[in-house]
């Protein structure tokens, strides 16, 4: 993989304030893995790249911005909850104030600061400002796309990409992935035909594009094409199963088709083999909500779950007092109810009530981008 150095970023109109080519390449490696939803072992994974990046240039502001932004996207945390994150954001701000950054970099730093404080809409406004002048800024595109996803802002997920899509000519690195990102926004706003066409284009260029696979999984779900959906997931599994940040969610979609067919044991097998192990390995918020909503669906269908809620509860329990997204809270509640942990349930509801009454807390609405996440059937 050819990674962009200082000159390559500058030539692309996305200059980075560092003299370290190593830091620039590691920034590119991190961004690429984020776009692909994959920790690439040959690159050292995202964490490996970020630690080398910080060593290469500890004052590289965009390195701090991507690092903090990825923690926020992956964990759904905030500076109010996480002392390490709080310190990391403070460091990012200090680093950015002791040098002259480009206006684009300054906006990135401010956006991540807003995101860290829980002000998702303001962060999105700042990323959109970047995209106005720098339509090929993939970090601004991905961060805003994912933040809109959390907010359930479906039209924005589509229009944010629609505005910049013409600038992503095939010569721009990662351009095929923009087709997949745009396609998801189209699907979320019911333009299924256009979404499918674009996702297939993306997959014809890069079959391992797990986000485009995910879009097609949604389209089959929304059209109640259970048989087609199952066949698609089976045929493509080899391409996306190693995208460790999204594979769990794609397996979750696969299991949804099985639930709709009434094949509960097969759905449970996917849960046991892929969804729970992913949750236990990552603790990522997407894996948390997938685990909870899968078990909750099966329980509503009358399926005996054994001790499965007890395996999820230790992960969700740590978030009982977070109250960052109501969408997440609803899933933590499923776990504490499922495990019959009355104390945790009571604590979650009491602190949620307090948070809703506190002027300092900024509760975000339920993210309904994955609309069927909270519904048993969407068709
Ligand atoms: Fe989904």
Automatic annotation (TrEMBL):
Gene3D superfamilies: Tetratricopeptide repeat domain (1.25.40.10). InterPro entries: TPR-like_helical_dom_sf, TTC38. Keywords: Repeat, TPR repeat. CDD domains: StaR_like (cd05804). PANTHER family: TETRATRICOPEPTIDE REPEAT PROTEIN 38. Belongs to the TTC38 family. This is Tetratricopeptide repeat protein 38. It comes from Mesocricetus auratus. The lineage of its organism: Eukaryota, Metazoa, Chordata, Craniata, Vertebrata.
């Amino acid at each position: 993989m050819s990674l962009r150095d200082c000159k390559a970023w500058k030539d692309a109109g996305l200059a980075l304030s560092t003299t370290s080519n190593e830091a620039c390449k590691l920034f590119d490696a991190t961004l690429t893995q984020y776009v692909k939803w994959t920790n690439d072992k040959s690159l050292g994974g995202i964490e490996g790249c970020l630690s080398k990046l910080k060593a290469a240039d500890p004052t590289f502001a965009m390195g701090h911005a991507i690092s903090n932004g990825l923690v926020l996207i992956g964990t759904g945390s905030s500076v109010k909850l996480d002392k390490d994150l709080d310190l990391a954001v403070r460091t990012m701000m200090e680093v950015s104030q002791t040098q002259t950054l480009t206006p684009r970099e300054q906006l990135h730093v401010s956006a991540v600061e807003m995101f860290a404080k829980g002000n998702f809409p303001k962060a999105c406004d700042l990323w959109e400002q970047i995209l106005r002048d720098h339509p090929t800024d993939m970090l601004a595109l991905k961060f805003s796309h994912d933040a809109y996803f959390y907010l359930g802002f479906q039209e924005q997920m589509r229009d944010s990409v629609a505005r910049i899509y013409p600038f992503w000519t095939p010569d721009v690195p990662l351009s095929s992935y923009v087709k997949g990102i745009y396609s998801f926004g189209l699907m979320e706003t019911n333009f299924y035909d256009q979404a499918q066409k674009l996702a297939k284009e993306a997959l014809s260029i890069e079959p391992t594009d797990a986000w485009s696979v995910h879009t097609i999984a949604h389209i089959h779900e929304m059209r109640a094409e259970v048989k087609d959906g199952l066949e698609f997931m089976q045929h493509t599994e080899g391409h996306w199963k190693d995208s460790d940040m999204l594979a769990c969610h794609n397996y979750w979609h696969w299991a949804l088709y099985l639930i709709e067919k009434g094949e509960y044991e097969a759905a449970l097998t996917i849960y046991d083999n892929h969804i729970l192990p992913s949750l236990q390995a990552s603790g990522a918020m997407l894996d948390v909500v997938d685990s909870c909503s899968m078990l909750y669906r099966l329980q509503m269908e009358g399926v005996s779950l054994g001790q499965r809620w007890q395996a999820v509860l230790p992960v969700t329990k740590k978030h009982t007092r977070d109250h960052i997204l109501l969408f997440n809270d609803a899933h933590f509640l499923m776990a504490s109810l499922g495990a019959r942990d009355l104390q945790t349930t009571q604590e979650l509801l009491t602190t949620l009530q307090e948070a809703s009454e506190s002027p300092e807390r900024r509760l975000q609405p339920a993210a309904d981008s994955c609309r069927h996440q909270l519904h048993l059937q969407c068709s």
